[in-house]
Design brief:
single chain; 304 residues; alpha+beta; Helix Hairpins; HSP40/DNAj peptide-binding domain; 3 domains; three-stranded mixed sheet; 15 strands; 23% strand; rod-shaped
């Protein structure tokens, strides 16, 4: 018995385009291979339903079928060469038009399966559809600020229990997403991907400013006055920094190439803000400064 697309979709011959689309969406959701991994017959039924919808959603082909000129496969009935229009059967997602309304099959499957729109294998116009790949798996990886700055390798455990070392990309930022091909769920057409979203953690004393790292560095009064060399933390470990003579609080010193790695491979800097810390209740310091006054008008630029 010849296949009837109306019966396959469960609609009447006079069904509207809206009714046909609604019936197809319902059946596609029920029969999609991703939702029926233990039922191989569902894939065949899914392909049949899709083929029926492909014909009925094409206004020209539907008319030819209704007039008995072509069968459901798009082949001419009785050898009179009507066929399925220029180019013959078409594969993949496409936009179909009926009555001026465009229907994108990719959108249908995006709605039904959260963007996993691969269609199941099945005959259509003598061709087979590629089997759908497995679903993508989402991961969130928390990375320390210093690791992000230096692109240190990160170890991540996947859903299947396997552990891999992940190389962070140049120019990594909070929210950067990395795609690991073939590390998602298994499907009839192969494994999907793993999507790893990077979350850069806050740091107790470093902050990020573009491609630079910022640090407030406490120094003593004598270190600020006497051009001392002090130890400064960086993302890669401590380095020695020479404090210029008579340095005031708020002065910014620059450590070249100690910031974040940019997309072009160069690195930002580390900006060190000097913060002079005076001792509390230091009688010796107080006695040394007794009678001494700094005569500079340090607030003149403020108008006071």
């Amino acid at each position: 018995m010849a296949k009837d697309p109306y019966s396959i979709l469960g609609v009447a011959r006079g069904a509207s385009e809206k009714d046909i689309k609604s019936a197809y969406r319902k059946l596609a959701k029920e029969l999609h291979p991703d939702a029926n991994k233990d039922n191989p017959k569902a894939s065949d039924r899914f392909s049949e339903v899709t083929q029926a919808y492909d014909l009925l959603s094409d206004k020209e082909k539907r008319g030819q079928f209704d007039r008995g000129e072509i069968d459901m496969d798009g082949n001419p009935v009785g050898g009179f060469g009507f066929g399925g229009g220029p180019g013959g059967p078409r594969g993949g997602f496409r936009s179909e038009h009926f009555g001026g309304e465009a229907v994108d099959l990719g959108d249908i499957f995006g709605d039904l399966f959260g963007g996993r729109g691969g269609m199941g294998a099945g005959p259509r116009g003598g061709r087979t559809r590629p089997a759908p790949r497995g679903a993508s798996v989402q991961y969130r990886l928390k990375v320390s600020l210093t690791d992000a700055a230096t692109l240190a390798d990160q170890r991540i455990t996947l859903a299947d229990g396997k552990t891999i070392d992940l190389k962070l990309p140049k120019g990594v930022e909070d929210g950067t997403q990395m795609r690991l091909t073939g590390k998602g769920e298994q499907g009839p057409g192969g494994a999907g991907d793993a999507l790893v979203t990077i979350q850069i953690a806050s740091h107790p004393f470093f902050t990020r400013q573009g491609d630079d790292l910022r640090l407030d560095l406490p120094v003593t009064l004598d270190e600020a006055l006497n051009s001392a060399k002090v130890k400064v933390p960086t993302a890669e470990g401590a380095v020695m920094l020479s404090v210029p003579p008579a340095t005031s609080s708020g002065k910014v010193l620059r450590l070249k190439g100690k910031g974040f790695t940019r997309k072009n491979g160069t690195r930002g800097d580390q900006l060190v803000t000097i913060e002079i810390v005076l001792p509390e209740d230091d009688a010796d310091l107080a006695s040394r400064l007794e009678g001494w006054k700094d005569q500079r008008a340090v607030r003149a630029k403020l108008g006071v």
